[in-house]
Amino acid sequence: FFKNFGVGIYRVNYPQSMLDALIPGIQDHTLSPQDRFGIQTDVYALARSGHINYVDYLRLLRHAYKHEDNLTVWKSILKQLTDLNSIIDYAHIDNIKKYFQTYICDLLSNIYNKLEWDPLPNEGLQAAMLRDIILIQMGINGHNKTREEAHKRFQILLNSNNQNHHSINPNIRAGIYLTVAKTGNQEIFEQLKSLYRKADTQEESIRLLTALCRFDDEMIQRQALEYIWNRNEVRKQDHLKAFVSLASHNRKGCEITWKYMQDNWNKIEDIYGEHDTHLIHFVEHVPSHFVTEERAEEVRKFHIDHPNPLLDRPVKKVLEQINIRRLVLERHEHTIHQFLIT
């Protein structure tokens, strides 16, 4: 009864009895990675569209996917959970965010313990890439052991001289930088900035620039915003990556970047040109994180005030995104909270 991938794009609405029957095959991997990937994406899509409750998805992950070890499956799961996490940023129930972060860390605990920080003997590229995304998620979601280790390795990196600069495996650097930034102070911001200026590869530059935009401290977020538009420091082609990174970090980062966009749109258009597709990415990846009709109205007004045919479809897409996210919060916040605390 599995769909034939690559033949058509459609969703399967599994009855609960069928999902329950599939769980053992997901747990022991007798089902292929392709099927394990497809089942959870279908359930997530159905929850997001309002056909089922998000709790069905979260429960499925908890019961069936705790021993998952496939990179593609985890990338998909973490993309969905990051999406939901960013909606929960706007929740009215105070402690729901903390409970959700605990849920994520618990879900990842087995694969985290299996991979930890350092390469395993004879491991392949997939394991290295998986370690990278698992460490990032554990670090930014408040896992104490990950945070302690990230700070320890960050100090090693800072203290090493240029000859020893590569003592920290590049595959775990994003996890280190994003984790120390998450609850970092002004000193860490300056240290990351110093490393950014000395970065000797484009890959390392982007890792560090992204981390500079991932502080929770609002004062530092405003400094990051100013820094990423400093053309003496940041290359033109990297402004957008950094700006989107700040917008996607949390609610406050999104508000700061959205206000900047509204106040400086003419300047942004001058930098890129009014027919440049970069403008589409600014519109699609900043206000799309909002969840209220008031914010949707601001997006409509922004487009009226800055008419550009290039942006007609992206603005429509963003308005749909905001509406979907608003409905998710209205319909599911209380049931998700109940699930997380029981």
Automatic annotation (TrEMBL):
Q: Return the GO cellular component terms, semicolon-separated.
A: cytoplasm; extracellular space; membrane
Task: Domain (ERAP1-like C-terminal): give its ranges.
Answer: 7-323
What are the GO BP annotations of this UniProt entry? Answer: peptide catabolic process; proteolysis
Gene Ontology terms for molecular function: metalloaminopeptidase activity; peptide binding; zinc ion binding
Judging by the UniProt lineage, the source's domain of life is Eukaryota
Q: What's this protein's family per the entry?
A: Belongs to the peptidase M1 family.
Protein name per Swiss-Prot or TrEMBL: ERAP1-like C-terminal domain-containing protein
Organism, by scientific name, is Rotaria sordida
